[in-house]
């Protein structure tokens, strides 16, 4: 039985490294895509499903022969929107600047976040992934009764990263250019 995506990728790496002496490097990638059975008037459909991602969980593991087993995990395709309390202000301006500052705008974004656990240890990967996702939602939105203002997209990204690093010690780092919110328009 597969316990977690991370453990599955670790098991695949170990299998190839211990079974095949000619293998010098292994890299695995696995993602979880959530499907939900279609229903009509509360009756489950016999064979049809709909994809309902609220963030796709993925992970990678890699190992060089005689090297450490390294595990990465992440969230992708998590669509988030703030209808207020998001600004676009305080940015560098020059002769090419055409956009005016705004202190209230809609921020709609799609998250991609990939982190490293460093060398593989005995982690509760499900718990860690859920904590990271909670940090993303908390830092993006703020408290449910009042929200939280962010003067820029970049500040929002920084707040999310800092929240994760302060609350989830198992996350050793974010990989360069593997954490971003894509602005999207609907």
Automatic annotation (TrEMBL):
Belongs to the uricase family. This is Uricase. It is an enzyme of class 1 (oxidoreductase). GO terms for biological process: purine nucleobase catabolic process; urate catabolic process. It catalyses: urate + O2 + H2O = 5-hydroxyisourate + H2O2. Pathway: Purine metabolism; urate degradation; (S)-allantoin from urate: step 1/3. Catalyzes the oxidation of uric acid to 5-hydroxyisourate, which is further processed to form (S)-allantoin. One of its GO terms (cellular component) is peroxisome. Its EC number is 1.7.3.3. Pfam families: Uricase (PF01014).
């Amino acid at each position: 039985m597969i316990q977690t995506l991370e453990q599955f990728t670790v098991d695949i790496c170990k299998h190839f490294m211990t079974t095949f002496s000619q293998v010098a490097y292994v890299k695995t990638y696995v993602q979880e895509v959530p499907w939900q059975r279609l229903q009509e008037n509360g009756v489950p459909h016999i064979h049809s499903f709909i994809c309902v991602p609220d963030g796709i969980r993925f992970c990678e593991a890699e190992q060089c022969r005689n090297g450490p087993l390294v595990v990465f995990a992440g969230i992708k395709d998590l669509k988030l929107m703030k209808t207020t309390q998001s600004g676009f202000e305080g940015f560098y301006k020059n002769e090419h600047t055409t956009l005016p500052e705004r202190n209230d705008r809609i921020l709609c974004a799609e998250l991609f976040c990939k982190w490293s656990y460093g060398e593989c240890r005995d982690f509760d990967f499900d718990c860690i992934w859920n904590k990271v996702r909670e940090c993303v939602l908390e830092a993006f939105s703020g408290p449910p009764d009042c929200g939280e203002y962010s003067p820029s997209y970049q500040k929002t990204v920084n707040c999310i990263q800092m929240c994760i690093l302060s609350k989830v010690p198992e996350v050793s780092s974010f990989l360069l250019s593997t954490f971003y919110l894509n602005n999207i328009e609907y």
